[in-house]
Amino acid sequence: MYKQRRVFCLGLSTALLTASRPAAADGRPRLRILAWPGYAEPEIIKSFEQRTGAQIDLTLIDSDLDLWQKMNAKQGLNFDVFAVNTAELQRYVQQGLVANLETGLIPNLTRQLPRFRKPGAIPGIVAGKELVGVPFAYAEMGLIYDRKRLPQPPESIAALWDKQLSGRVIAYNGGTHNFSLAAQALGLPAPFKLAEHAWLPAVEKLIALRRNAGGFYTQPEESVALFKSRQAALMFANFGRQQLLLLKAAGVDAAYLIPKDGALAWLDCWVIARATQNSGLAHAWINHLLDEPASRLLTSRQGLGSTTQESADYRADDKLIWLQPVESEERRNRLWHRIVSGDRLAKVLAL
Predict the structure, then answer these.
(1) pTM for this structure?
(2) Which of 88, 144, 267, 314 lies 20 to 30 Å (CA to CA) from residue 127?
(3) Is the bond leading into 22 cis (omega within 30 degrees of zero)?
């Protein structure tokens, strides 16, 4: 049954893309992709082009803002398929930039790991009752520690506030994620939607983090430099295992873990633009990216979790807290700027 369905879907996709527009200069159907670096590797593009006879036009993005601006230009007419975080996806839906997915055209959905085959359990990938995003890549914001300086692995996210590690903790310089982190450490039930009474304890918690930390970073490479220069023992890994790979390459005897109380985690999905004129080809691309070669490269080359491949690094029983839109990025970042600048509690809250 699966084999018959797969042949039918590929045949349908070929028929759709043959009649679709836009086309490349040589008459081949063209698929315009907007994605993060590492999501559409050259060999994956080549094999897709050979399989479908299409031409891929790939545009890379470097931030959520860059993605938003590119997709909003000309009402999304510039692209057919794009990769976006679940915490961002719903605003694309609200803007009318996203098409519903035809799951029958993506037979490789059956290859996904169990936790990714229940759309209702993943915030943000459904609009009404329709699937709009296919989970592809993910990473947790776990803890990285130096085995030599911290022989006993930490168990909880609370280790970031351990006074015995004062000055030897490296933290992330960003208000949106840090307020969620503080809410998690406080045991608040809704880390992405802080109630009014939760702001004071969250601010107090982040002031304590500022006092305990030896430095704050914004980019993975910066985190490695800080970790080494401050002789740190522990780091909040906003970029997950990518930072672990960089630290090991820099000669640090580093290890990575997911705290028992869970880790914030981002999840990127493939999404089809509503304005696409190549729907069949776009579905075929998503199906192609769920196949083994693309999934393997995602983990081996990029150090990211794949939604289709089991890995010793990414365990099924890890508690992951998928990022969601927050109540106010502006408020979080404004307060965080005052906190990290060294302001006292009263001055922070006076804003």
Answers:
(1) 0.80
(2) 314
(3) yes
Which residues are paired to 58 by β-bridges?
A: 33
Q: Nearest-CA neighbor of 44 among 295, 304, 317, 271?
A: 295
| Residue 269 vs residue 23, higher pLDDT | 269
pLDDT at 303 over 90: no
Domains 2-136+266-315 and 143-257+323-349 share a fold: yes
Give the position of tokens 């080494």.
228
Q: How far apart are the first and last CA of the chain?
A: 62
Nearest partner of 88 among 98, 80, 78, 79, judged by Cα: 98
| 232 closest CA partner among 149, 305, 153 | 149
Give the three-state DSSP class for 137: strand
CATH 3.40.190.10 is the classification of domain 2-136+266-315 = yes
Own/partner long-range contacts of 223-230 (Cβ < 8 Å, ≥24 apart): 223/170, 224/250, 224/252, 226/170, 227/144, 227/146, 227/170, 227/252, 228/252, 230/167, 230/168, 230/170
Alpha-carbon distance values, 225 to 170, 235, 253, 257 (Å): 10, 12, 14, 21
Cα dihedral 38→295→44→101 (10° resolution)? -100
Q: CA distances (Å), 20 to each of 105, 132, 135, 277, in order?
A: 16, 21, 26, 6
Cα 201 to Cα 205: distance, rounded to the nearest angstrom: 6
21-26-31-32 Cα dihedral, nearest 10 degrees = -100
Helix, strand counts (H, E) of the chain: 12, 14
pLDDT band of 235, cuts 50, 70, 90: very high
Angle at 261 between CA 265 and CA 156, to 5 degrees: 105
Q: Domain 143-257+323-349 carries which CATH code?
A: 3.40.190.10
